[in-house]
Design brief:
Blueprint lengths: L12 H10 L4 E6 L6 H11 L4 E7 L1 H8 L8 H9 L6 E5 L5 H7 L3 E5 L9 H9 L3 E5 L7 H14 L2
Parallel strand pairs: 1-2, 1-4, 2-3, 4-5
Helix pairs in contact: 5-6
Length: about 170
């Protein structure tokens, strides 16, 4: 079993969040599948960390990734994805979630800052997530994506290479 030291279970979120408030620390939250960790992910996570003191990352479970991306995904199982994110210095906490959105988790966390990729906008955010974020006065921040880096593009490139093999 892989050691994932930064994982926060749902039942502990409120206690952990209250400790951050007592310490006057700004909590930043972001989320994603992180199916095939690449430079674009690391860039976005490092940029998210700069928005506050503590960065928690929501990670879609395997079932959630399948619901969002189809039956051929995820590439890496959730334990491997959590392990890789756990190794990043900029990540302070990891929360595994099962939904296709993280409204439930946002309601518990009530972050000070919510960060999403620049592929999103206020208009394209999940309406339930946006409502919760606005209710807790979270600042919503969009990080411009690192061009030419995405899991889909990486998979396409890998397939191209295999198709060229004799």
């Amino acid at each position: 079993m892989l050691s994932i030291l930064k994982q926060i279970i749902l039942s502990d979120i409120r206690v952990c969040r209250e400790q951050l408030r007592q310490n006057n620390q700004t909590l930043v939250f972001t989320n994603g599948c992180f199916d095939l960790l690449h430079a674009g992910h690391v860039y976005a996570l490092e940029a998210a960390k700069k928005e506050g003191d503590v960065l928690w990352v929501g990670v879609n479970s395997d079932a959630s990734v399948r619901a969002l991306k189809g039956n051929t995904r995820p590439i890496y199982p959730q334990e491997a994805r959590l392990y890789l994110l756990n190794a990043l210095q900029c990540v302070d906490g990891l929360i595994l979630f099962d939904g296709t959105n993280c409204a439930r988790e946002l309601e518990l966390i009530q972050p000070d800052v919510y960060v999403k990729s620049g592929h999103y906008s206020l208009e394209t955010l999940n309406p339930n997530e946006r409502r919760i974020l606005e209710a807790c006065n979270a600042r919503i921040c969009f990080i411009p994506p690192l061009s030419n880096w995405s899991t889909t593009k990486t998979l396409e490139r890998i397939l191209e290479l295999f198709e060229k093999e004799p």
